Amino acid sequence: MSELYFKRPMPHGGKLVERVITDKKVAKKFLESCKRTKCPVYDIKPTLHYKRGVPVRNVYREIMSVCYGFFSPVEGSMTSAELESVLSKRRLLSGWVFPYPILFDISKEDYKALGVSEGDRLIIRLKGKPFAILDIEEIYEIDPEELANRTFGSPETNPEVVREKFDDKHPGWVIYRSHNPIILAGKYTIINEPIFKPPFDRFWLPPRKCREVMEQKGWRTAIAHQTRNVPHVGHEFLMKNAAYTGDVEPCHGILVNAIIGVKRRGDYPDEAILEAHEAVHKAGYIKPERHMVTFTLWDMRYGNPLESLLHGIIRQNMGCTHHMFGRDHAAVGEYYDKFATQILWLKGIPSYGFDKPVNEVEGGLLIRPQNMREFWYCPVCKEMAYSENCNHTKEKEKLSGSLIRGLVAEGVQPPVVIMRPEVFKVVVKWWKKFGYPFVNEKYVQWKEEELEVDLPDLD
Q1: What is the distance of C-alpha 81 from the center of its chain?
Q2: CATH number given to 200-450
Q3: Which helix (H) or strand (E) holds 386?
Q4: Residue 379: what pLDDT?
Q5: Domain locations in the chain as residue ranges
Q6: Are 131 and 191 in contact (CB under 8 A)?
Q7: Fold: same for 3-196 and 200-450
Q8: Is 0.90 topped by the overall pTM?
């Protein structure tokens, strides 16, 4: 199929959601008006693990992703009817596909102290400074455990792809199980644009800006690479093969979009992820003009097929024409079939509300899937091999993430056939900064205190 067939898809829902006041004078007047009418004020608190008390989420990331259009057409915290539609049909009330609840939750104690009612405007503060407002349309109560169970499903309700019951070992299930019970539903508006700290400032490219940059680069076709990890050589070959030898013929550019937020123990720090992917094109392994590194703020849910829907929505909104999906996409543990995401995009998963592929259903996505199988190192060919394209499958050596992490943890640079030295150098750089190469509770606590942004003075 010729690349001339493809054109940049419209945003999911038809237009980008942009709910950010960028003019500081307008923002100050807006805030002054809120103060005159004595709008209630709420300081964002991290979502804490319902058992262990460590941060697992910060709702500011969802507010950012909503207001800058990454989650278009979602405009805020979901009403009870919208939530039920998402949980039962994986669709918004408007009919557009959306996989996850997006909720502004507070404790019963905070709700009582706030004294807010439907119709009120709430000033949301971050780090003690005005950040956004929430125009409250509805206030309702949820059962967090029921929310978590219904969000992901079970082997009984979703037998096509769910293999194990979700529990405390699944980070996404824990996030929803840790939600507070009171939901304030309504639209968000950011009134004080955050300033990203280094190195995040170099990679911040919200959807409208990303689309503009793609136009400037002449990228009529762009394929998205989802990542929560530093790249090993297998990832690099996945990008190259998906973009340059697949149906896109070849793709003009690769958009690496990293998920930045709280992650599970053992993943790499966010700063290392971004700079390590940048190192791939800075060192010339992929041409810089065909490779761009960006990020989305989201405390990852590790939801395999459901997460792939969100990823498709994000990258379609950013302007991508294609999205690569590999084995065990955005997964952890053995909860899902290893190819659950590809099943969703190739055939559909009826129990999740898709009786055919998600870009063939009403309200579905326009971005096209590029489903990829596995890469390994072939010691006979002495190169990376893809699927069955050589006859040495008995000798194949899989690129094990746990093996690579084991080498890194011992301070041993992995062989160049596994990890580029420039990537390892980035890992070591941030290891020296944090005192550890991987995410742990200390990093998560530090991350919550620092966040990725600062807020300017608006008062």
Answers
A1: 24
A2: 3.40.50.620
A3: strand 383-386
A4: 77
A5: 3-196, 200-450
A6: yes
A7: no
A8: yes
